[in-house]
Write a structure and sequence with these properties.
52% of the residues lie in helices and 9% in strands. The protein is an alpha/beta fold.
Length: 369
């Protein structure tokens, strides 16, 4: 059965169905780059341009639906990021990054969406502007290779072209030229039809996590231990995963430390101490070359990176395991836990969730229902 965001695509009905669509009509855009008007007008034009594309028409119905949803959502967070400067110029900094977070939240909580499709849509929203501005990036190759691990670059260009054509501006020709340059460059670095292949997991990890990483460098694998880092919202089943894991290795659990010292999960001041205690235990295992499991939520990229950098500094191989259940099942599981969290806390954590990506660790597994 094909997934659909909605069965009725009439704009007025979309506004009634989704509050975030209705909000678009009240979000202005800079007339130099968007003389067509507000975000609602622009989004409708983008969808029209997408549907008129021969490439789009040649896709399967499921891929069309995925791209249509990404087009509808691509500027969803201009509502929260739009600012007007002293000269009256309008901009929306970081709207793609915030929009990706919101898209994930909507497609997890409000519209039940298969995990893989959801994350592709999230990726398209996150990178929808990349084809237009790739060559202005500090490291265009790394930016393109990272995006290719998350989205189909052909479809990303298709969305970006609809975005460029779905506006009224004087530099539209330059934008379309940038798209052709994007395609040529991405083909040259070999990630147009599929992600570029690295020789080893360590080669991919080293490239994306070194300031001066070289794409063809093959590092020597000299690992002293393996760290399995769990990631997932509270109540998703991380403890269940550990209980059913077939390796008899020690577990460092932030929840266990909190319970031992009677520290509430929402106690920010004392949770820093909890993390430090866990790190000290991890260092003991790392120095011994002992494998272990790190059991915590680890829901943001920055949180995971700080820990992975520590583990790798001790020559550990890092397996990142992300665990997710459907929204309604998750909330039920939380209520049935011995130590449930308030719904307000879960809502905030869901809003901040950043699903792990392949470049973050040596190995990544999604355990998703």
């Amino acid at each position: 059965m094909e997934w659909k965001l909605t069965t009725d695509t009439d704009w007025l009905k979309l506004e009634k169905q989704f509050s975030w669509v209705e909000a678009m009509r009240n979000v202005p855009q800079d007339p130099i780059h968007h003389a067509e008007g507000n975000v609602a007008i622009h989004t409708q034009l983008v969808i029209e341009q997408l549907q008129q594309s021969n490439t789009y028409r040649g896709l399967s119905r499921q891929r069309q639906e995925l791209l249509w949803a990404a087009a509808l959502l691509h500027d969803v967070e201009k509502r929260s990021t739009t600012v007007v400067d002293g000269q009256g110029r309008i901009s929306s900094p970081s709207h793609a990054r915030k929009g990706a977070q919101t898209a994930r939240e909507i497609l997890f909580r409000d519209v039940e969406t298969p995990f893989s499709l959801r994350e592709e849509i999230v990726g398209l929203v996150r990178f929808h502007g990349l084809p237009l501005w790739l060559m202005e990036k500090v490291d265009p190759m790394r930016s393109a290779l990272e995006a290719s691990l998350r989205v189909n670059m052909i479809e990303l260009k298709l969305l970006a072209e609809a975005d460029a054509r779905g506006r009224i501006c004087q530099d539209q020709g330059a934008l379309l030229d940038a798209l052709e340059l994007f395609e040529l460059y991405v083909k040259e670095i070999d990630c147009w039809e599929s992600p570029r292949s690295f020789s080893t997991p360590n080669a991919q990890f080293t490239y994306f996590n070194s300031e001066d990483g070289y794409v063809d460098y093959i590092p020597f694998d000299n690992f002293r231990s393996t760290v399995i880092m769990l990631s997932g919202l509270p109540g998703m089943g991380k403890d269940h995963y550990i209980a059913n894991h077939n390796k008899d290795i020690p577990v460092i659990s932030l929840d266990d430390i909190r319970r031992k010292y009677r520290i509430e999960p929402i106690d920010r001041k004392r949770n820093g101490w909890v993390v430090q205690q866990a790190k000290e235990q991890a260092k003991i295992y790392l120095r011994q070359g002992q494998d272990f499991i790190w059991n915590a939520t680890n829901i943001t990229t920055l949180m995971r990176k700080q820990l992975i950098d520590l583990f790798v500094s001790y020559q550990a191989y890092v397996e990142l395991v992300y665990i997710e259940k459907p929204y309604r099942q998750w909330r039920v599981q939380n209520r049935d836990r011995a130590h449930p969290l308030p719904d307000t806390v879960l809502d905030k954590m869901l809003h901040n969730l950043e699903v792990p990506q392949p470049m973050e660790a040596h190995e990544l597994h999604y355990i998703v229902e």
